[in-house]
Design a protein that fits this description.
This protein has 523 residues and is of the alpha/beta class. It has 18 helices and 16 strands.
């Protein structure tokens, strides 16, 4: 059964005591203290959670020993005064989160980044960050590795140029930057010009591994086609050709070396842009792919040596069987797989895909019922499905399985083989912690019965279970879960027709009576 509630840790109790005293004593006297950086970080988090944090208390916790500071948890308390204190007192910061701190004026942000030369991680999302702030950042924070400037209304495409290059000297800045998030950045003139700015950024930052923006794939394609003009598109800044030659001296010469990027992630790729992305970005580990009308997937996806995280979405419904060449080539190396928009036209499509991908850590599948009946026609389909060899998933920690069209039931053959596949997933995934089963039209009662009643070590690590619009699951399964050994601490039951509010009350009574550390959500 789920764990019983345990006594709070001594460290937590001490933190709570300190938090209560901070409000009445330290905030008024500003006592100089020598709390360890990690202790101050936890204390700040706790006081925010317990609604004990005030501006004066916050100011008293802005201490010289801090190496990490997260003010994004209390943006409403962060003012110009807070930042001035941080500028003076917290010069050893290597990580700073100011997400949502909209009250900080531009001038205070500039002074702050100039005073923090050791910063390696900075979150300025949803702040008053602008071109001047990014210019100061590029000049003063040479060791910066991670930067988030999403949702900053004052940041324009031209602002990015000042982050990565000093127009006064022509020197490139932020050369250690590995992650740059600008999810919501939009063009101030036209979208095409924004793509050229992204090309500039990609060429200027040799260590950039993650550039988060919808148009990155377009920029990569331009680099692939060597559409890099010697004309200075952006007045005062080097031309794209100059940047390319800085990276690869004989680039653009006939027979010269090709240019490659350090990017490890790219999304919004289709089957036509993928070969270009693969050529320019040989180190890709994470790809989000949108399939359109390519008739043969296998030819395009044979050389993904470093890929471990693959997301595939279909514009139009396709047979999951079409993914077999992909999973046959890559399945053994994948750790995360998310697929959406495929239908189970072939009864064995899901089982075969699982057979290819037994090293997964995270699996997310949204599928449609078959458009037409499949190929298997036999009287003893039960015997056939149960004869399928067991599949084992030693690394799997999270599983999300959803049937997209609940109006159409799965044919009997498909349902039985899907049920067998799900049984193997639950029974032979010893590290499974998170499980979401959504709108499934197979008997989950039967699945859990097979998983939990046989003598084995199934679902011992399960912590979170969401059952959403599953009509074929009853309180028998819930009772079985509550009486089985596991780590369950979150159970969500949403619109499951065989489970009513009276059943939920009994579950809650059991949780209270047996002092279980379990949060039950009913919707």
């Amino acid at each position: 059964m789920p764990k019983k509630r345990s006594a709070p840790l001594l460290r937590r109790m001490c933190l709570e005591k300190v938090a209560l005293n901070m409000r009445y004593i330290w905030a008024g006297d500003y006592i100089i203290n020598r709390l360890a950086s990690s202790f101050v970080k936890e204390l700040l988090q706790l006081m925010c959670e317990e609604d004990l944090l005030t501006s004066s208390v916050l100011h008293s916790l802005l201490l010289p020993q801090l190496s990490e500071l997260d003010l994004g948890i209390c943006p409403e308390l962060v003012t110009e005064s807070s930042i001035q204190i941080t500028t003076v007192c917290c010069k050893n910061l290597s990580s700073l989160n100011l997400s949502g701190c909209i009250q900080i004026p531009e001038e205070a942000l500039i002074d702050l980044v100039k005073s923090l030369p050791h910063l390696t991680k900075l979150d300025l999302s949803k702040t008053q960050c602008n071109t001047e702030v990014l210019s100061a950042l590029g000049s003063c924070c040479c060791g910066l590795r991670e930067l988030d400037i999403s949702l900053c209304e004052e940041v324009t495409q031209e602002s990015l140029l000042h982050l990565v290059c000093d127009p006064a000297t022509g020197a490139l800045c932020c050369q250690e930057l590995q992650t740059l998030q600008l999810c919501t950045l939009k063009s101030t003139t036209n979208e095409h010009e924004l793509v050229w700015v992204l090309v500039f950024v990609l060429l200027a930052l040799p260590n950039l591994k993650y550039l988060i923006h919808d148009s990155v794939v377009d920029a990569v394609c331009l680099i692939y086609y060597q559409h890099l003009s010697s004309t200075r598109i952006f007045p005062g800044f080097p031309s794209l050709a100059e940047l390319a030659r800085f990276r690869v001296p004989d680039y653009l010469n006939e027979g010269g070396s090709s240019l490659s990027l350090a990017l490890k992630e790219i999304y919004a790729v289709d089957e036509y842009s993928w070969p270009m992305a693969c050529a320019v970005c040989p180190h890709l580990e994470e790809v989000s792919l949108f399939l359109r009308d390519s008739p043969d997937l296998g030819q395009s996806f044979t050389s993904w040596g470093s890929l471990v995280h693959l997301t595939i979405n279909c514009k139009e419904r396709r047979d999951l069987k079409e993914l077999w060449p992909v999973t046959r080539n890559l399945g053994g190396q994948l750790r995360i797989l998310a697929i959406e928009g495929f239908s189970l036209d072939d009864e064995l499509s899901f089982y075969t895909l699982l057979n290819d991908c037994q090293n997964l850590k995270h699996l997310r599948v949204t599928f449609f019922p078959p458009v037409q009946s499949g190929n298997i026609r036999m009287k003893n389909i039960d015997a056939f499905s149960s004869s399928l060899p067991p599949l084992k998933f030693p690394r799997l920690s999270s599983l999300y399985l959803m049937q997209a069209d609940v109006e159409d039931l799965l044919p009997a053959e498909h349902g039985l083989i899907l049920k067998t596949s799900l049984t193997y997933l639950l029974k032979y995934s010893p590290n499974l912690q998170s499980l979401d089963l959504v709108c499934l039209t197979i008997s989950l009662d039967e699945v859990f019965q097979m998983v939990l009643t046989t003598p084995n070590s199934s679902l011992l690590q399960l912590q979170k279970l969401y059952l959403i619009q599953d009509d074929d699951i009853s309180m028998n399964t819930i009772d079985l879960l509550l009486s089985s050994k596991n780590e369950l601490n979150c159970l969500k039951i949403d619109t499951c027709s065989k489970i009513c509010e009276t059943d939920l009350e009994k579950v809650l009574q059991k949780v209270v009576k047996e002092n279980l550390d379990l949060n039950v959500v009913w919707e």
